[in-house]
What we know:
alpha/beta
Amino acid sequence: MFFGSIPALVTPFSGGRVAEDTFAEFVEWQIAEGSNALVPCGTTGEVATLTADEHRQVIATAVDVAKGRVSVIAGCGTYSTAASIERIRTAADVGADGALVVVPYYNKPSQPGLVAHFTAIAEASPLPIVVYNVPSRTVADISVESLAAAAKHPRIVAVKDATGNLARVTAQRLACGEDFIQLSGNDDMALGFNAMGGTGCISVSANVAPRLCSDFQKAMNEGRWDEALKLQDRLYPLHAALFTDASPAPTKYALSKVRPGFPQDLRLPLVEASDASKSAVDAALEYAGLI
Length: 291
């Protein structure tokens, strides 16, 4: 259902507003460059700063531009079960194909609470659910056993795993079944992740290098591991550089280099990337042959 290179799209801003035309052009470019699906309104899309109307607008724009050519997996998670359900219903109303739902942050639920949270969402959701596990941001970490319990619901179909623990891929494969979709949440680990049973990556780097990231995922899918390793090495400095400052500041800077005129604006509390971060991005873009 969901596979390959899936950019976690940035949200361009201009004059304090969502730059809708720029975003539409960006989505079209991503599809033309080979991205296999799209994630609007994720962490990289600064979803925490979007109003409810903007959240709906960004997802609707992605859906309208995609026109069914690729899946749109809308970021819909919050630390409230009821609020997450409302966001999913909004995403479904505008035509999204799936919902990315982060493990609840800040309120730090127990494992039974996490199972209950995702099960309640799945019961109410008209869309398939991708569980997003990123304990470095949420503090809470859904365990393998809890994920397997939640995955018994037919609408919980996948996990975006950003734990940084590659052993989880095998453990979750054994616990959740071979048909349960596993997507890496870490670009730098995507090679090992797929080798252990993953099927793709929800990627930050694909914002900037969609063709290379698509070629990388396709090479692995077709068993061309030597070629995939070369692409991994070519992309690795970019993966690292895009996290040399608070994300997505380095990514928006990188986009301004590969797509001149792309706005670098961020919303507080995020600010532009540091000079050191920009230098790292410049070097990585040159190494990858993107500038």
